[in-house]
Amino acid sequence: MKIALAKEMREIDRKAIEEYGVSEILLMENAGRRVAEAFSDYLGGFSGKKICILAGSGNNGGDAFVAARHIENQGAQVRVFLVGNPEHLTEGAKLHRDIITKMGMQVHTLNAERDWDKFQVAMRFADGIVDGMIGTGFTGELREDVIRIIKFVNSLAKPVISIDIPTGVEADTGAAFGETILASLTVTFGLPKIGHLICPGKTATGKLLIDDIGIPNALLSDENIKQTFLNETMVASILLSRQLDAHKGSCGKILVIAGSRGMTGAAALSSMAALKSGAGLVTLAVPESQYALLEGRLTEIMVRPMPETVDGTLSHGALSEILSLSAAHDAVLIGPGLGRAQETKELVRSFCKEVKKPLILDADAIYAYQGYADSLKELAFVPVLTPHLGEMAGLLDITVDELKGTLLDMTREAAKEYHATFVVKSESTMVVHPDGKIFVTSKGNSGMATAGSGDVLAGAIAGMFKQTAAGLSPLAGVYIHGLAGDMAAAEKGYGLIASDILHYLPQAGMTLVK
Q1: CA 46, chain centre distance (Å)
Q2: In 10 A of CB 154, how many CB atoms?
Q3: Which CATH number fits domain 232-238+248-509: 3.40.1190.20, 3.30.1390.20, 3.40.190.120, 3.40.50.1360?
Q4: Were 55 and a residue from 61, 106, 323, 416 both cysteine, which residue would form a disulfide, CB within 3.0 to 4.6 Å?
Q5: pLDDT digits (tens, 9 = 90+) for 478-503
């Protein structure tokens, strides 16, 4: 499934209307009816319930007027409030407003203070609220009257369904400059939007439902839309079946360069994740002082001691040895728990420049490229980097807030500029390719915000190298990591730890095998 930017969704609507002859009124009817159906399911029916409708003057408000009609027809007592100027109603919104007024439903405005008094009374006694004030066209700041409404609605903690996107959320960024409706669920039309998937928009969205409302599928699957929702169907389509004559060498030989004094857990987690994701053989290169500890702990991993600095990190003297090791492996993961000593950073850059194998750079290996990002273009293969937002911002020499404000544009530009694939870790991990294509995972949860989770992700990406037709594509690794995290959360809740995610990796991978 594609993910639409606001302008892309507007173009889809235009083509549906002008090229396919699907009327705007019909789309509005389908949208409002779907909202009513979804809210009825959520509330257990409307009979005898009191529902308040908040409608704006745009097409979002038109959807709300349609929902009001269907909700009242199902036995609810409906109060409708117009948030905006009645003279600014769009043609479609005006038509559906006129229909409900002919049904005897009054559309209240909020002009005088006594209107606000009636509004507050109605809202306090409501069993549910429909938010149709502002849709996906919103950017910038809200009007004071809308902010006042949002604050009051949120204070009530009532069930709220938002139409298309919660009022106050920017569709293309997930940003909310001030207040936003905190919805229980959101019904969006055509395609999901980035704002549903990135916080604070993701938090405001609640449960997300997606409905095509009759838009032709050819428009919703347009290849010119470069954002895609990463789901099981897509990942399964690139997964290779393991042949009967498979052996450890054919299933992927992965070299992991990781660990330092006090950071052995990162080395253990990432190397075991590669093995549990399907790699046939994993070799772990670590500072020599850490060798005995890890060699005894990791019975299925081949551990190799390497020259180290006085601080217990890999020294530049390890370069020739890890280059020699890499020759016998299919891909290399470098960085988990490696440390940030100056000599170690220089080793990372020297190794990455000289090695002739596909590379995954995680954690401290990414840190080694701060101030040297242009050097990524010199690598033999397009590397995969797995930064969290702080690491990504550091690589680009900007603040995290600056990055989050234009996350898609900034990461897309960076992937193209540095000839690299970025796995940007956040509430919805994104895979950004140099050709501009972006994949946003449908799996994962906030319980995965735990130390070591990123090490498991990096290992999973490495371990899936020989398991997919796409080669060193992080898509399968990102998906099974998120799914394993969801499985762990179902058992452990917010108490899950990285080794719980590690434990579920094989089971997550098996869900893709048909």
Answers
A1: 33
A2: 16
A3: 3.40.1190.20
A4: 61
A5: 999 999 999 999 999 999 999 999 99
